[in-house]
Amino acid sequence: xxxxxxxxxxKAERHARFTTGEALRMLRELKGWTQKELSKRxxxxxxxxxxxxxxxxxxxxxxxxxxxxxxxxHPAIIMFPEYEEEDxxxxx
Length: 92
What we know:
Blueprint: H1 20-31, H2 35-42, H3 46-53, H4 60-71, H5 75-79, H6 85-91
Protein name: HTH cro/C1-type domain-containing protein
Organism: hydrothermal vent metagenome
InterPro entries: Cro/C1-type_HTH, Lambda_DNA-bd_dom_sf
């Protein structure tokens, strides 16, 4: 099944900018998880998940590794949501 016709696409001139908390929330919601579910999977308290998603506390290395592991993403996706995928691939 073909999702689109073969045609030229124009590269976006601007990209959405996300904070670490917004990226974390988006990744969690894409999984269909509640904060409680992410808490169980990452070992991070629900209250801290909320604070992280609202950019009220710093994420730190230990938390980002636990969250990335739980979400199945590279830690850079959470830490540096403004970077392009290619930049992250080169950095890793």
